[in-house]
Amino acid sequence: MLLVISGFDPSAGAGILQDIKSVSLLGITAFGVVSCYTVQNSERVFSITFRKWEEIERELSVLPEPKVIKIGLISPEFVKFIREKFPNAKIIWNVILSSSSGYFFESAEIVKENLDYADLVVLNNNEAEKLQVLHIAERDFDKKFVITFGHSNDHSDRISVLYSGKYFAEERIIHNGKSHFHGTGCAFSSLLAGFIYFGYPPNEAITETMRIMKKILILSGKEEPLRQVQTEKLAREWMKYEALEELEEIVEELVTIGKYTVPEVGQNVSYALPWSENEYEVAKFPGRIRLKEGIPTFVSGPAFKDKSHTARMCLTAKKYAPQIRCVSNIRYLPEYIENAVNAGLKVFKYDRASEPDEVRNEDGKSMEWMIKSAVRTSEQIPDIIYDEGWFGKEAMIRVFGRSPKDVMEKIKKVVGKTTQVRL
């Protein structure tokens, strides 16, 4: 078990909330005990209240014995008590003497008195100088201090970490000319604790932690004034894998039914994520699905590549109904519309002649206008939006749903009775 003992930061950029997010990113179940309460945001600390040891100890007593303990902001003398309570645990202590905004947390002298109770001590270069341990970390026989140089102005294009006489380096991430993120120390030390939990030796854990931190920071703090580590943005990457997997699962059905559904321009199935904002954040089949000698052929497997009309439709549809994230286009036949109506699906007929010239003449705008028209008329996203074609435009049926499976079920209702397809 991995245990986190750290302060509570209501902004969630640092402290125990950041710690738990970071180790959860590695798939680790972590337990947590709050060591202090702070009033702060991503820019400034206003106050802090440390908890009594008796309160902390009471909570520790009801939890399983930990394998690894990550300690953050805490009354320094409590590290000794934690070591006495859990003598076999590996303790990683992220020492924090003061906030970036200058709020004083811990006495350097009291911290120094308790350093021996931790297996690894993580601190930035400013804190290392105050504790007079920088020269120790530069020795190759030292196995205790991990010193980060994110606060250093030297080598501004690189972030360095010193451990056991060796410097580890990674690219410094800069957004809008700024490279400071609230919570980097917490995220770094928690990820480090996570890899130690997996059994990594410290030097390998540092290397892997720096690699993950780079990925996190690339995605973090782009929205002003939120200048903090946003681990959750990397955590949601699992949703991309799931989206691709769900598209893979319908490939066999698409092949079976494709000879009845693939239009002349090709078919696609696009699947947006809840947070998708552009076409490259929508899963789809790049190059579309084509008929070759009557057999559906995939140019590519599902991927987050290329642009697509159905991807744009997904993005527009979920603005009106966030749960509607999947769209497919299929061949138009009058009997398909009749089947859809008989199956109880909500159907909207779109008249391309009603499009304003500025919509018709700009690529991609027709699909957006079409969905807006359907919502204005139906006050919802229908299951089916179809049109009977226009000059240079093939007649088309678009099927909307929550997921690829949902869309496939609707497609089968549309074509099933006509073709006697059995899937």
UniProtKB/TrEMBL annotation:
The alphabetized list of GO BP terms reads: thiamine biosynthetic process
State the InterPro entries in the record: Aldolase_II/adducin_N_sf, PM/HMP-P_kinase-1, Ribokinase-like, ThiN
Instruction: Quote the EC number.
Output: 2.7.1.49, 2.7.4.7
Coiled-coil portions: none
Boundaries of every Thiamine-phosphate synthase ThiN domain copy? 246-413
Kindly give the Pfam families that the UniProt entry links to this protein. Answer: Phos_pyr_kin (PF08543), ThiN (PF10120)
Q: Which residues form the Pyridoxamine kinase/Phosphomethylpyrimidine kinase domain?
A: 9-214
Q: Which domain of life is it from?
A: Bacteria
Keyword list, A-Z: Kinase, Transferase
Stored SUPFAM superfamilies: AraD/HMP-PK domain-like, Ribokinase-like
One of the record's GO molecular function terms: hydroxymethylpyrimidine kinase activity
Mention any one GO cellular component term assigned to this protein in its UniProt record: cytosol
Q: Which PANTHER family match?
A: HYDROXYMETHYLPYRIMIDINE_PHOSPHOMETHYLPYRIMIDINE KINASE THI20-RELATED, PHOSPHOMETHYLPYRIMIDINE KINASE
Name of the protein:
Bifunctional hydroxymethylpyrimidine kinase/phosphomethylpyrimidine kinase
Origin species, per record, is Fervidobacterium islandicum
